[in-house]
Design goal:
Elements (H helix, E strand, L loop, with lengths): L3 E6 L3 E8 L2 E9 L2 H13 L4 E6 L4 E8 L4 H15 L6 E8 L7 E8 L6 H9 L3 E7 L15 E8 L2 E8 L2 E8 L6 H21 L9 E7 L4 H7 L6 E7 H7 L12 H10 L13 H61 L7 H18 L3 H13 L4 E10 L20 E9 L8 H15 L5 E7 L23 E9 L1
Parallel strand pairs: 1-4, 4-8, 9-12, 12-13
Antiparallel strand pairs: 1-2, 2-3, 5-7, 6-7, 9-10, 10-11, 14-15, 15-17, 16-17
Length: 506
């Protein structure tokens, strides 16, 4: 993160503070004349990489409470801009802080409109900031840092009095929200003058608030004074409780410690505390126009890109580290597998060495084992095929077997046209049988029935996997070139006969 520096501007001078880590260090004081502005430009050039925040403690401030219809987006922006121009015409240093919506009526939005009514006082300093292309985060007023000084149990109406080099500031809060603030210049800023001015200005403020009906008449106003412990006695001597005012004194050193400021405070002037609060808790709204914050937006864009690049780099490094860990784990796993493989190989070699020696080469032994496996395959012979045939004969009891020839073959005869060889029968050996069978003599005149029965029988035989049944001869001669004979020719009827080949993979 870049260093933050607060430029504290009062009626006569601008003081530059370096803020960070709870410490506030003054780095220079500049006047508004040409030599002072030149020195201020040199200071900005020296700390070009810093982010600057301008904190104004001037008397030329305006506060206006305004209720506007609830709106959003461009409509609200236009309405707010019109209100700011109406109340603070001639100054671009304005802002509108939302104080919530009303609980009654149409629930309008309440705005606190604020403006720095003397922009000529800021222009020389802003011109130097523009010339040096310094990163200006915003312009703020002292009153914007005061909410951090309000405890949760603050009364509904509270007057806070603080002392800075610019004078005595009185800030009024209603229900914990800022309403307005005014600065009273002091001639010498001595302890006695500050105590007298506190009593006088608090009394004037009470009368003004009663006249504006911001507090009830006859009800005392709680007035808290931020004061150094060394000056409490003088303040108490001058600031006495009465029917209109009830004074409470805040220990400046205790408040600074509570808020995290570690720099010492010599007296009741608390500008270093307010610079610390501004850098620690920047308000959401600020007075600088968009043109004055151009370099700040560029800085934000550059910072976002650098942050994104850093995140990408960190992500890449984490991913690389993870991949490295995975690689190491894989290397360990590979080494373990290699070691296990070597051990298994040693055990395998030991087992081979323990086996009795066979006077055969590896190729010869492999061929011998292959032939042995082939013998085992053929040893079952035609038994599975005959068992299958018997099951089909049980299913078709009308069919009788006249003759059966079986053999073991290595290859099948070329497939006939339209014949499909099952993939499971692509390689042998096979058990093959030629079957000559006959049908019942009663079916002599039923040629269609003969063909259907033979087809069903063949289909039943071929239903078992790795089995192929092929009809070699039908019981009825279906060839168109056969000579027709007269039906008057006398002859002895014979049972229809047919043949088929049944093949089963072993």
């Amino acid at each position: 993160m870049p260093a933050r520096r607060v430029l504290f501007l009062d009626a006569t001078h601008l003081t530059a503070y370096q803020v960070g880590g709870g410490a506030v260090h003054a780095e220079g004081e500049f006047s508004a004349d040409p030599p002072g502005l030149e020195a201020f430009g040199a200071y900005l050039a020296r700390w070009r990489g810093s982010v600057f925040m301008l904190l104004a403690d001037v008397a030329e401030e305006g506060f206006q409470l305004e209720d506007i219809p609830h709106a959003s987006g461009k409509d609200r922006a236009a309405l707010v801009a019109r209100k700011l121009t109406q109340y603070f015409y001639g100054t671009p240093l304005t802002l509108a802080a939302s104080q919530g919506r009303l609980k009654e009526g149409r629930r309008d939005e309440r705005l606190l409109l604020m403006g720095l009514t003397r922009p000529q006082h800021f222009e020389p300093w802003l011109a130097v900031l523009r010339e040096t292309e310094s990163v200006l985060a915003g312009i703020y007023t002292l009153a914007q840092t005061f909410p951090a000084l309000l405890p949760k149990d603050s009364p509904a109406r509270l007057l806070l009095i603080t002392l800075t080099r610019g004078g005595l500031r009185q800030t009024f809060f209603a229900d914990g929200r800022l309403r307005f603030s005014r600065l009273t210049a002091l001639a010498t800023g001595s302890q006695e003058e500050s105590a007298i001015a506190t009593t006088i200005e608090a009394t004037k403020m009470h009368q003004y608030l009663v006249g504006q009906r911001l507090i009830e008449r006859g009800k005392p106003l709680t007035t808290r004074v931020l004061v150094h412990p060394a000056n409490v006695a003088a303040m108490r001597a001058r600031c006495r409780d009465g029917a209109e005012l009830r004074f409470e004194f805040l220990d400046l050193l205790q408040e600074a410690k509570r808020l995290g400021l570690r720099s010492p405070l010599a007296d009741s002037r608390a500008e270093t505390l307010f610079c610390h609060l501004l850098a620690k808790r920047p308000p959401a709204a600020q007075f600088a126009p968009a043109a004055e914050r151009t370099f700040h937006r560029l800085w934000q864009t550059r910072f976002a890109l650098k942050s994104l690049s850093g995140l990408i780099l960190v992500g890449g490094l984490l991913f690389a580290a993870k991949q490295g860990i995975v690689m190491l784990q894989l290397q360990d796993e590979i080494a373990r597998i290699d070691q296990q493989t070597r051990q298994d190989q040693l055990r395998y070699d030991g087992v081979l060495q323990a086996l009795p020696k066979i006077p055969l080469s590896t190729d010869s032994l492999r061929a011998l084992v292959g032939r042995y496996e082939g013998v085992l395959t053929r040893a079952q012979g035609p038994e599975p095929l005959l068992l299958q045939l018997s099951q089909s004969l049980d299913a078709f009891p009308a069919i009788a077997i006249d003759r059966l020839e079986w053999s073991i073959v290595e290859q099948l005869a070329p497939a006939a046209k339209g014949e499909i060889l099952p993939p499971a029968m692509a390689r042998g050996p096979y058990a093959q049988a030629r079957i000559d069978a006959r049908l019942p003599i009663a079916m002599v005149g039923d040629q269609r029935g003969q063909l259907a029965l033979v087809a069903d029988f063949a289909r039943h035989l071929g239903a078992t996997p790795a089995t192929l049944a092929v009809i070699l001869q039908q019981p009825v001669d279906t060839q168109s070139g056969q000579t027709l004979k007269s039906s008057d020719e006398s002859h002895t009827p014979e049972a229809p006969r047919f043949s088929l080949r049944l093949t089963r993979k072993l």
